[in-house]
Amino acid sequence: MTQFRCIDNCLQIGGVPLTTLATDMGDRAFYAYDRSVILKQLDKLRQELPTGIHLHYAMKANPMPEVVNFLAQHCDGLDVASGGELEVALASGIDPKLISMAGPGKSESELALAIKHGITINMESEGEMARIAVLAESLEMRPRVAIRVNPDFELKASGMKMAGGPKPFGVDAERVPQMLRDLAELPLEFTGFHIFCGSQNLRGDAIIEAQTNTFELAFRLARHAPTPVKSLNIGGGLGVPYFPGESRIELSGVSENLEAQLQRAKQELPDAEIVMELGRYLVAEAGVYVSRVVDKKVSRGETFLITNGGLHHHLAASGNFGQVIRKNYPVCIGNRVVSDQHELVNIVGPLCTPLDILADKMSLPVAEIGDLIVIFQSGAYGYSASPHNFLSHPAPGEIFV
Ligand SMILES: *Cc1c(COP(=O)(O)O)cnc(C)c1O
Fold first, then answer.
1. Structural domain spans, the chain
2. Is the pTM of this model over 0.90?
3. Can you tell me the distance from the alpha carbon of 177 to that of 187, in angstroms, rounded to the nearest whole number?
4. Mutation probe of ligand 1 site: the residue of 238, 277, 377 with most atoms within 8 A of C-beta
5. Computed from CA positions of residues 256, 242, 319, 83, in that sequence, does the dihedral angle turn out positive or negative?
6. What is the position in ligand 1's atom list of the atom closest to the CA of 194?
7. What is the Cα–Cα distance from 345 to 370, expressed in whole angstroms?
8. CA 30 – CA 396 distance, rounded (Å)
9. Does domain 63-278 match CATH 3.40.50.12780?
10. Which atom of ligand 1 is nearest to the CA of 238?
């Protein structure tokens, strides 16, 4: 992968040889995130996207406090999806006005925490609005609220659809006008709309279409708003390439269309800040997951590298995080990046389940026990999206370099 250097045949993360990081982490498998790669990705976005776009970080992609603190300094805001994430976001020292909270099923204590700190709550239902109004009265505060809209269109060709049709997320677009009328009677400060269509999209044309529809919908709904829209969160959706044949998304068309939408928004929503919230796009490529070869064996003609890490640390790379067909993430042998001797191997973890696969029939440099297996594109939905307790092996380490 092109985002990391290789010196003396050893992968470098944040300028540190992988072998050094591995020694520091002891016997554990671990995740390492390279801050310079995150920064480059952000710089690229800021260069390519129109200047009026505010970039927020969706923390659930990688909630490691060091990563969040770093992005709190370099992004324009944070989006949290739980009370736990909110605690980490607040601890970063960011202005709470720049934090928003989304997610269905927010508990009373999560809502109360959000209200006390004055963060924006993206309301996911009419019932949630009623609960917030009750809390507002008992806390004697005026919560900042936006409506998360479940749009009447879909993001095409998306890895993960989050909108259109019946969904647990947001309020159906056709019910939003009534909700806005009800909101006007409550002790709530209306800030705007949040319209998030889906995740992991690599097709510029699909994103352009969804973004155009998103602005269109926001313009329509704004006519029913009790006060001017101050913020329109158009979601994210930008994907990263994980599998063979995928390539990085082409942003120039997306950017051109956004510029045109921003011009229209100046007329239709003159007070609104336009926000994009991105998770994986900011952090996925900056992360690697590293495990060590513990055993090497041959079974009926196939070679297996067995490592001290696997599905319990990196569910997505094992193909069990929502994928329909299992495909290999990009992999290298971190201490033996290039070699003139290759072999076909299966890389598996130590779990007693056939699901524990990190790479299936991959051609890699001939590896030995003790070598470091690197899974690229692992900075998002890795550590925190994996079932560490399954089989009671040690949890992976995490390091921000
Ligand atoms: C998960 C999520 C995101 C981030 O999605 P990515 O694919 O990681 O960019 C953004 N907004 C909301 C509301 C989410 O739930």
1. 6-32+285-400, 63-278
2. yes
3. 18
4. 277
5. negative
6. 13
7. 16
8. 5
9. no
10. 9
Give 40 Cα–ligand 1 centroid separation in angstroms: 20
Number of helical (H) and strand (E) elements in the chain, helices listed first: 11, 22
6-32+285-400: CATH, from 3.40.50.720, 3.40.50.300, 2.40.37.10, 3.30.300.130: 2.40.37.10
Domains 6-32+285-400 and 63-278 share a fold: no
CA distance 64 to 85: 10
Q: Which of 146, 148, 227 is nearest to 185 (CA)?
A: 227
Contact 237, 277 (CB under 8 A): no
CA 237–ligand 1 middle distance (angstroms): 7
| Ligand 1, residues at Cβ distance < 6 Å | 58, 60-61, 79, 81, 102, 196, 199-200, 235-236, 277-281, 380
Inform me whether the pLDDT recorded for 198 exceeds 90. no
Ligand 1 atom 14: the closest Cα is on which residue?
58
User: Which atom from ligand 1 is nearest to the alpha carbon of 236?
Assistant: 9
Band the pLDDT of 27: cuts 50, 70, 90: confident
Q: 246: helix, coil or strand?
A: coil
Residue 158, pLDDT score: 64
User: Listing from the earlier edge strand, what are the strands of the sheet with 16-17?
Assistant: 5-7, 10-13, 16-17
User: Collapsing DSSP states into helix, strand and coil, what is residue 11?
Assistant: strand
- pLDDT 10s digits, 88-136: 999 999 999 999 999 999 999 999 999 999 999 999 999 999 999 999 9
pLDDT reported for residue 1? 74
Closest CA to 114 of 131, 101, 98, 128: 101
Q: How many Å lie between the centroid of ligand 1 and the Cα of residue 184?
A: 29
